[in-house]
Amino acid sequence: MLNSINDLPERLVNEFLSEYKLTNTEREVAFHLLTANENAVGIAKMMHKSVKTLKNQISSIYITTNSKARSDFQAKYIEYLHKNIQELSSKQIFDIPSFRRRDGKQMRHAI
């Protein structure tokens, strides 16, 4: 259950990445590839890694996910979202409190 809309992107990315057998470090790099508006140099700085190490990890991610480039990897994520959007919209993903009206009927706050 999510507590805020800010948790949604992280949850969706993590669900997508769980479909692949990535190491914890590769998952962290993959998360940044999907969410950060940075190139490899910028991501390496954010993660306090050398650019060479990061590029090696990115190559491993692309091999594991059968992606040719970052845009291909991002396209796979977008396809995942499209496939699962129906399911995601039908799930109750927020913990929304319910309240009783004065007449005793239950009501929920809309987001």
TrEMBL record:
One of its GO terms (molecular function) is DNA binding. One of its GO terms (biological process) is regulation of DNA-templated transcription. It comes from the Bacteria. This is HTH luxR-type domain-containing protein. It comes from Desulfuribacillus stibiiarsenatis.
